[in-house]
Amino acid sequence: MFLKKNYPFAEYPFIRLIVPFIIGIFAFRIFPFYLNIQILEILLITLFCGIIILHFINSKTYKQFNNILWGFLLYIFLIISSYTLSSIQYPQYQFKENKSKNSIAIGVIKNTPEKKANFLKLNIDIQGIKIQNQWKPSKGNCILYINIDSNANKLYIGDIIAFKPNLDSIKNKGNPNEFDYQSYLAFHFIAQSAFLKSNDWIKISSEHNFSIIRFAEHIRNKVLAIFNDLNLPNQVSAIASAITLGYKNEIDSEIKQSYVAAGATHILAVSGLHVGVIYLIIQYILFFLKKNSWQKWVKLFLIIIFLWFYAFITGLSPSVVRATTMFSFVAIGKQLNRHTNIYNILAASAFFILCINPFLLFDLGFQLSYIAVIGIVYFQPKIRAWFHSENQIIQFIWDLISVTIAAQIVTTPLSLYYFHQFPTYFLLSGIVLVPITSFVIYLTILNLIFYNIPFISIIFNVCLKYLILFMNGFTQFIEKLPIATITNIYVNEIQLILLYLILLFLTVYLIQKKIHYLKYLLFTIFIFSLIAFYNKFIQLQQKNIYVYNINQVSTLNFINGTKNVLFAELYKEKNIHIFLQNHWISMGLEQEKILPFHQLTPTFLFTNLTTIDNPNIFTKKHFFNFYGYKILVINDDFFFKNKFNSTIKVDAIILQKEAKVDIQKLLKYVYTKQIIIDSSCSQKKINFWKKKLKDTNISIYIVKEKGAWSYQI
């Protein structure tokens, strides 16, 4: 009925299924409402009853109506099913009440402990919790940060630990345009975290039951140990581990930045490119298996086994599992000798993945992977047809160029939205680095196979070493080229949609040559330009003050049009950029000027005037004036001993760090309507200020609790 061949999109059944499924996931993201599983059961029964009714209404008069009703019921079912699935899987805050001294939780370490500067980061699957001497089964994931010591260094995936469940719900900092870390973890089923001292936890045992993830991590660690035995230079071994196993912990930050500037970061993350190379290798190895009755089944079985074995040795990272699932569906469609549509195969694999975790829809890797593959499948043959050469080398280079252009066309809007930059020389890096990456994978696999045979291993080692050294040198060369990257590009959600509409209308117009598509294209470009001009106009008029929520850091940011002056601790400049870069880009600001608070003294008066270079920002000692808005900053350098000649009126007082001042005495001489306690203050100091200011009529704004403070003039 609903799937008849003459029906539009009859060749794409999974595309028709995934569209309402995605709508349901988006609906939960926008309007979250937690449903009970019973609702899904009711919907299933309702749908079943609808099918029975439609089965008996089989007259020609109602046939078309039956088809429409069948489709409508199926779409509604899929929308509400994905909505319900999302509400069931979204993590809840289960442990708010469990902070008593006698509470104990038991959990299993889900991933290999991640070593940070002074602590280990553990992803814990909570199994049970003890409250008031009673054990209760529990479900949920959390992140634990524990101090590094000899016991912590012995922890491994699958170990069972007992710990004090002093869990706090994970919240964003509340800074403008910040990365939504809370949602990111929630989409990976994590809602809470805790910082534990060495005496707040204890290892109970290792998990004896078989665990697929533990087994996969064990295999990956074995392979990493082999890499270490190959005596390759550190950065060569690090790049080889990243390309083949997705292990990027050992890559130098400067090398990473070079790959970013070259537009080649996808090479360092095991994804569709790498799994595709493995898929081709397996295809070549199994060339002798013909497509007769039983050999095609053997070939299909071996392809899937080898693909998932590769996924295992990479530790079953999400990007590899996603790519392996995609190519498994491709292999099934191809080896069964069906005239399957590649778009339908992609939709089927995406549908399967989203059924397991619907929130992967919002994962950047998921979005880029599927968009890139769709772009390559659709645009690459058309771009390839622009040029043909009898010379195989030239044709090979053109094929690489066509693939790179096809992928870049469809991923650029998304990359601009997330990363705010465009790699100018992406074509050059794609032509050179993509084929070399394939050879690196080949050589690495051969190295792993023959590493016990010294003579052969040395040959592969030398080849691998110089290939990777060339890759690193090439990316550094591109990074130093003029205008290697166009940075500070801001695209909002509406502009992102408009960019894809521009791409859609342009493509359809070039294929069908119909004038109304050109009109749609020009109208969409006009709307996009109008939004861009409006944003720029607003940016030129902006006069804002911000105090940001950055742990243990004091900030005071004045934004005047596109001018950006920030007062902060200079020694924490790198940390500041991590939190504020997206915000500054979204506001269209020029290069920021950062002044340390400790230089706000007469000694540095001339330096301040020349550095600020903005007549609308006046500062004298601890006082600031921005378009008439007056601020007094009180920190550990502030010394108040004498009475002022008259009462001073300021619009806000900012309390920083461990400021030692008699606030009640100060308020006799300084009148204000608002006091801001910034994020450099400890919790102990925040509680102290709360107590001191309790009986005043002054508005108190605590940055650590409410997020960044802002004022628009």
Q: What keywords describe this structure?
A:
713 residues, alpha+beta, OB fold (Dihydrolipoamide Acetyltransferase, E2P), 9-stranded mixed sheet, 6-stranded mixed sheet, 23 helices, 16% strand, globular, disordered N terminus
Please provide a written account of the structure.
- The chain is an alpha+beta fold and 713 residues long.
- It has five domains: 13-89; 104-209, Beta Barrel (OB fold (Dihydrolipoamide Acetyltransferase, E2P)); 215-390 and 440-485, no CATH class; 493-541; 543-712.
- It has 23 helices and 24 strands.
- Strands 1, 2, 3, 4, 5, 6, 7, 8 and 9 form a nine-stranded mixed sheet that branches. A six-stranded mixed sheet has the order 16-17-18-20-22-23.
- α22 links the parallel β22 (674-677) and β23 (699-702).
- α13 packs antiparallel against α14 (392-419) and α17 packs antiparallel against α18.
- The radius of gyration is 30 Å and the shape is globular.
- The relative contact order is 0.06.
Gist of the model:
With 713 residues, this protein is an alpha+beta fold. Helices cover 52% and strands 16% of the residues.
How are the secondary structure elements laid out?
Elements: H1 13-30, H2 37-56, H3 63-89, E1 104-109, E2 114-115, E3 119-131, E4 134-137, E5 141-147, E6 159-163, E7 168-169, H4 181-186, E8 190-196, E9 201-206, H5 212-229, H6 234-245, H7 253-261, H8 265-268, H9 272-285, H10 295-313, H11 318-335, H12 342-356, H13 364-384, H14 392-419, E10 422-423, H15 426-450, H16 454-479, E11 485-486, H17 493-512, H18 515-541, E12 543-547, E13 555-560, E14 563-568, H19 573-586, E15 593-596, H20 605-612, E16 617-620, E17 623-626, E18 629-634, E19 648-649, E20 652-655, H21 663-669, E21 670-671, E22 674-677, H22 683-692, E23 699-702, H23 703-706, E24 709-712
Parallel strand pairs: 5-8, 14-15, 18-20, 19-21, 20-22, 22-23
Antiparallel strand pairs: 1-3, 1-6, 2-3, 3-4, 3-5, 6-9, 7-8, 10-11, 12-13, 12-24, 13-14, 16-17, 17-18
Helix pairs in contact: 1-3, 1-12, 2-3, 5-6, 6-16, 7-16, 9-10, 9-11, 9-15, 10-11, 11-12, 13-14, 14-15, 14-17, 15-16, 17-18
